[in-house]
Design a protein that fits this description.
With 342 residues, the protein is of the alpha/beta class. It is built from 13 helices and 10 strands. The protein has 2 domains: 215 residues, D-Maltodextrin-Binding Protein, domain 2; 89 residues, 3-Layer(aba) Sandwich (D-Maltodextrin-Binding Protein, domain 2), CATH 3.40.190.
Length: 342
Amino acid sequence: MLHRAIALLAFIAGSAPIAPAADVASPLVPFVLALDGPVAAAHAPYLHAIASGAFSTAGLAVSIQYPEGRGAALGVLVSGGADACIADAVSILAARAGGAKITIVASIGDLHPACVVSRAESAITTPVSLAGRRVAVGPLDADRLLFPLFLAGAGLRADDVTTVPLDDAGREAALAAGTVDAVLDRLESVRPGIAILPWAEHGFTLYGPCLAVRDETLRTRPTMVRAFLKQTLTTWEACLQEPAAAARSAAASGLVTPEAAEAWLAAARYRFDTETYRKKGLGWIDRSRMAATLEAVRGTVGQPVTFAAADAFSTAYLPVPAVLRKIDEPAAPTTGTTPLLR
């Protein structure tokens, strides 16, 4: 981890523009973004934004923290160690219900990335086909808690499926050995040569990854948040339009390879190529969908909630005009476009 931290510090320092001695422009404003560590291809858009100077040209000195562990970035945000983080909407809302002073300001992908992965020779192609099957789930994954909602949409009960708690490596091994019929995974994380069943294609409309910001930051530095969101979403669009170029830029950090970053971006495109993002812009949040996501926190996660969904998110910080998704051709999740393992 030490060599990665050194590489990241060197990368950020090396990417900062050097102003002439006579330049008396205002200093860059620090902004801390927390992402679940370790560093991975999923972080490519943010590494690209730093490398391309997108943040610095907007007056921001963005630094990225990579706390180890799934959900760790949210913990850093809640504790005040970061200004913003990327985390699943249900986790953010549950944290807010528990007293955290944080607000969702953008969706990162319009579709939920959860999927059911099975072997190609015994592919599970419909939700109802899960009845009677053994499905490996991550014991700490938020998707495990939402799985019963996905099953309910197909008329199944939770006890119609046998869930087997396993870590990432254990799920992969169990699927290969045939001791489970399927595993829960994410569209950007699975490898080629297998069958995937995206939840979003079967009526699952809850939000997945979102960007959350501390309420104190929103209150004291709203202009900075707007600048950060504009550059972040603009960079995401650039990554989706030119994934190869963005991947090479991200790889300049020394923290990811261009091959891994490009493959991840190609797989992620499916979640962004939606009518909503084309018309409303990247990051848009629908009130009814967020309300349904909050209901999942109340009902499935079991966290008491005393606030309305409208109090937990805001679209007021999204760019105006919106960063519209420019879709040239439809993208669909196929086994050939989801090449990465966790």
